[in-house]
Every structure is written in C-alpha cells, then in structure tokens.
Amino acid sequence: MRRCYIHIGHAKTATSYLQCCLHLNAEVFAAHGYFVPGEFQAFGFQAMRELAEQQGVMCGNLAPMHVLMCEGPHDRMEPMFDYLMSAPEGSDVVLSSELFFYYVNATARVANAARRRGLAPEILAYLPRQDRASVSAYLQSVRHHQTSPGVVEFLVHDDFIPYLQYYRTLSRLRAKLPDIPFRLRSFAPQFLTDGDIVSDFLGQIGGRMDAGALRRPTRAANQGLLLEQYEALRAAKILGLEAAAEAVRLLQPDLTAGDRARVQAYYYRPYVRRYLMEHLLPGNEALLAHFMPAAGATEREYWQTLETPTDAPEVDRQQVRNLLRLGD
Asked: What is the mean pLDDT of residues 10-32?
C-alpha cells in the first residue's frame, strides 16, 4: 500500500531547512516515487517551490491546511485534501509541518483523510532534548520581542512547559491513531544519519536519492543570532526601543559553532538545568519505553541525562550599545 508520511516537527529541528530541501527537489522526489505537494495557488496560498527559491520562512506543505482548519473557509478543506493526496499511482505522499506536533486533532484529521484515500499514514517527528529545546524556545521568544527575565521564567509564565512534555502530547496522538506507526528520532548529530537531517529523513521514508546531490537551501539550518544581538534585543524591549529591536531582529549573521555554543552557555544556567530535571526529565523514561523502545544504550542515556552547564561567557556590552543605535 502507498504511504503518506506526515512529518510533524518538532520545532527547532531544522524543519524549515528540510522543507525547503523537499520543495527545491520536488522533481527528484517524484522521479523516485514520492509526491511532495507544493502548488497551493488555487487555494489562495503561495507556491512552496517559489517560497523555497526565495529562501522564505517555510512552515511546510501542511501549513495551508492548518490555516483552513483554523480560519476557513472550511469548504476548501476537502478539495485541498484531495490535492494533498493526489499522488500518481505507485507514489507515496510526503507532508510536513511543525505546526501539527501539538495540534493532535488536526494531525489525526490528516491521517484519517489519507486512509480514506487509500494511503497508509505514518507519523514522523524529530525531538530535541529539553535542555536545548528550552533555550531555543526562549530565544525564539526574544526574537519576537516577548522577553522574559530568563529561560525558566519564560517556561513558567508562558506556560511553555507542556510543549516540552513530549510523552504527554504523543500519548494523546496515539490514543486517536492507535494503529498508525510512529517514527520518533532524536534530534542530535550523533543520532542522525551522517549527522544530517536530510540524509536521516531520506532513510526514514526509504528514499534512495543521493542526499549529497540534492539542492540545499543556501541558509544554514536553525539560524540564530550572536549572543550580543540577543542581549541587545532584550535590552531594546525593556527600553522600548522598537526600531532598534526590529533592526537587530532582522540581522542574519553567519554563525560558527563557537557562536552557537556561546549563546547556549550564556542562557543555559545551573538553575535552568535543575528546573528541567525536576519537571521534564522524569517523562523521558516513559517516552523511551512507549515511543522509542528500539533506542540503544547511548541514546537511552542521552534522554535520561541533561547537559551540564558551563561557565557563562562574558558579553561585549559596547557591542550591545552599538546595536541599540541601529534604529537611530
């Protein structure tokens, strides 16, 4: 039976990068028996290939369906389902959107729509460990000008903790789709095929394409800012410097591994680790038992531990002050 792969994220697991790659290579996927729907102009949305070519922000080819589910018009949903599942005979369907990880009813609706059209749905998700995910979520909020004093304050005040309780969400989804396979992958380089999200994704769907020969987005996966830029954003929000904040937010620096490590070390403090160990780490044991039973010893240890914080780096305050003048 033909399959319908439903990639639901998680956020901050190079989803936009992967989705861009899918649409930049839709013809290659088609030649290997995979339909990657991307033409949504008839439904009032932009074509995914065009968006990928522009290196635009990508939420995946299920994002238009998510909009219809939330905002309507609802009479377009069945026609869009017909399009999403309109793969040529013998081809599998590849759908993707990180928006669906926490919208359990919506994901179940997509899976059931696939079944009604003779496809066998499979759920695929990549999970970031909570120490990285919590900092990434906090920094995403900083980029959107929603600045809390620190990571834990953000998690508590914004009620973000449920978004990192993976087992709870996945259990709700499995209760609605008890007979559908789940493929859960640890989003860390040591557990990805060749340390690469695209290579790993191809392996999960059985793709025989050469990952190295596929067109890739020119921007790096999981783009971010320099430490001083994040601190400038935090200061701009407190001081009410909206023009400066917008100018800093739009920066797209060419980050090194060292730049990313500085950011993680600065915001991932011992008190953050203690909070995550108390409120999130216990749930990972159930996650392993019920959703990742085939995980090896190294991967199991990975999910039952958390990164140990290092000494926080110094911030170049003069650089922060200079950045705050960008809106002048």
From this structure: 95
